């Protein structure tokens, strides 16, 4: 025990000699420990903010490449661009879509499309910012210091100066900024006569005033600018405006996010209160609409860095721009291949030739420019292909001249599979005659200096003179924008050709009827015969044919039978329908017999139409265009002003269906004299149009009406392939009390997303489009006219109109539906007397049954005796219940 007592004594003595030593040591270590703890917390906060910002940039660019936008921003877009009233008046909706009138010219339609694109591009920017903020959830951004993005976009269209208005305070904690920019080139306009280009500007731009000690804290993030181009397509220092841009189809777009993060670590935050975080993401914009300027996507450009020059006697800071010429390796020639012994002067004569298909040219060489020998041979075809390398980044325009036909193709990269036709000669030109046809010249195309692009030209020579030349204009490759220069070898690299072994001759296939292909049937329309669209005339039935055989095909006879159906229950068909003549392709007459108004007709052609191997064209049944058209404006009586459902113009619909026309085309496949001729018949008919099945639903206080529409009766299924449904309602006094349009299913008289919206009887009002009608929904017997138009391809829409009468009554369990007379198949017999006026004839009020080919479920009278308990509908809407 003595050792233990001794140790205890020593410990007591030691603590008496050094009191509170542990507290002192703890006090010395505590600040370091706290700094470490706060450091770990601070690092975690910074990492969390940076990851959230990264996610926001990812969300933003994913949204940007889709071309989508929030229609809620269309109001602001219209106000900023001065297009609000035009957007509203075009279709009574502010939706960033300016709809041209039905009688608009092509120029007016193009102008409406460009204005719609501008509105949508403006709304896209605000929508992209919303998407980025949604992805950056978790950052403590402060809206009061982050500026007004919508105000910034609005103000940018009022000035070409670089200003801080609405851009926020980049030095303040919680600042959130977004910059959106693309590599888009815009066509010439009033403020940019040679066009303009968007690019990032990395030069410093500060919020003033700022303290000299922390100047960089007041610097704005990188910003986007729209700069003017000069006549050579190069970027100038003249600005159109400083504004964000999300690019168009095929352009690259980059989203840059900047956030000033607040630090909380003691001591550190007193002299370093915030940390600036920045991230960016880039993507390629999808093809969400037709682009009139082809953008071969290269990198997003940056404005030149400002440099300082000191000319005497004063010092001036001058931006300098010195384009650097790109270097292209392996250039000097281009591959030229030719095929001799090929008859004809059309490109199709070459591309359908077996030697071309199997890639066995007669010969090939390597010219030192994009220029083939001229006045060389007859009956041959040429293909010149390789890669073009522009010396500078900018816009280039390509030209082609040839004798006879030719086509020029360009790819957005080095892959030949991505090529598209950019220019062509439809007949012939003299040697280097660049301006004979407008199609010889391509649109302005954006190219990146030093990059290779696959290029290919085809030419077919029949007889006489022959030539093929390809030229371009652009910065330092031509004297000016109006003087095409043949592309020299220094910008060309030949395509690498792999010679094939000697082939075994392939036997020529025997003639067969399926060698004449109906392209209209095999295309997206899936119809053997279709109606011509109204903007092209609308007075004929047509089929596109292609001769896939190595023989001539002779078209010698045709017939057509129409069953008399007209799918419009409120007006009769035009009595002036008169068949006129048979046409081929660009209005070449095959046979012009005497006009006939018969439902069925047929003729043998005195001079049959001969289709050469590999050729194609349109065979047309043409009606007298001076007195007849398949398209008509529905006879819907209406008041003017808000009560006009057509907005003061006319709207054309086609109530004929190609399924009601059944024709035949007779043709011969003509092989060499040693083989017999093959005689064939091609059936020509089309698809059905929309079937309308109305469903009336009513409670003791409310009612609604839904139209279940089968876009192609018996083919498409319910509510598929439908373009629009219109509702017109007339009260018992014959007044139009309501009209509306629905373009998405379910198709309802008062709209609705998943189900139809109802309205209270004797409380709510009918509608004139998006506005209230002056008529209240009262107890009455109403006549409902329903128009449906399907969405068949190539604008060859088909329509139908039905008419129903329903009793609308409040405090009544069900609505009684007035039975309609049974439809009969009595064809309408057209008159033979032509007239120069085109007015559809409305039906008389006497309900005489007329032919309608819009079948609906059998209609029974559903009038129920009034009862205090409403009867619940047990039949689904799609099957005709709840009427």
Automatic annotation (TrEMBL):
Domain of life assignment: Bacteria
Transmembrane region(s): 20-41
Signal peptide residues on this chain, from the entry's feature table: none
Segments for region (Disordered): 811-883
UniProt keyword terms in alphabetical order: Membrane, Signal, Transmembrane, Transmembrane helix
Alphabetized PROSITE patterns for the sequence: PA14
Entry keyword annotation includes Transmembrane: yes
Annotated protein name in UniProt: PA14 domain-containing protein
Classification lineage: Bacteria, Bacillati, Chloroflexota, Anaerolineae, Anaerolineales
